[in-house]
């Protein structure tokens, strides 16, 4: 598992370095460079998130956790999402500093809470060999929070004037995908309601 995580770290570092390098080609303004890097690193996180939870919706979280191999893939996917989003947070902090924006406000408090849950997720999940009711609720609670942050983030940007802004169609399409991902996972939870979780007091 450790070797697998180091490979993920290397791949993401190379990818994020490429994103920053391409952002530097778009403008000479450092603040805008980091803003673009933050924007596109977040889109990498979104792609990882969609791929992971589309698979969870298809297979069912309770079913996936019954297989050690599939559980390992979930852990790797969550780690990739968390590590990439950590780099996104770094780009975001630098952007706010260079552009003189305030980072920690009441408006951003919800997003900061989700960041904390995301960064804790790999550590939390790698300790789990069985899916308990507490971990089941924790995973889907974190998933729901991340869906909300992505959705609200795009909702707040689709009609704004920002440097090198994407088309409205991209934002609307992304919001539809995020909302759809949330709904199909809620439907999967409903389908799995009769599947009993293994009771494991140590893992609770």
TrEMBL record:
Q: Does the keyword Metal-binding apply?
A: no
Q: Keywords of this protein's UniProt record, alphabetized? A: Membrane, Transmembrane, Transmembrane helix
Q: Which residues cross the membrane?
A: 5-26, 38-57, 78-98, 104-125, 137-157, 169-187
Q: Which protein are we looking at? A: DMSO/TMAO reductase YedYZ, heme-binding membrane subunit
Task: Please give the organism.
Answer: Reichenbachiella ulvae
Q: What is the lineage of its organism?
A: Bacteria, Pseudomonadati, Bacteroidota, Cytophagia, Cytophagales
């Amino acid at each position: 598992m450790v070797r697998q995580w180091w490979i993920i770290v290397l791949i993401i570092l190379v990818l994020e370095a490429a994103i920053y390098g391409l952002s530097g080609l778009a403008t000479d303004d450092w603040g805008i460079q980091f803003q673009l890097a933050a924007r596109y690193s977040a889109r990498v996180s979104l792609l990882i998130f969609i791929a992971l939870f589309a698979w969870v919706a298809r297979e069912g979280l309770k079913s996936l956790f019954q297989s050690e191999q599939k559980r390992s893939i979930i852990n790797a996917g969550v780690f990739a999402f968390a590590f990439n989003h950590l780099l996104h947070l770094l780009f975001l902090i630098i952007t706010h500093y260079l552009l003189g924006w305030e980072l920690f406000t009441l408006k951003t408090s919800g997003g900061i809470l989700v960041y904390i849950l995301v960064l804790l997720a790999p550590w939390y999940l790698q300790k789990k060999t069985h899916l308990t009711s507490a971990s089941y609720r924790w995973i889907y609670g974190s998933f729901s929070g991340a869906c909300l942050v992505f959705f609200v983030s795009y909702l707040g940007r689709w009609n704004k004037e920002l440097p090198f802004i994407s088309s409205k169609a991209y934002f609307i399409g992304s919001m539809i995908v995020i909302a759809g991902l949330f709904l199909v996972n809620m439907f999967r939870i409903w389908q799995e309601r009769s599947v009993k979780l293994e009771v494991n007091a140590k893992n609770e």
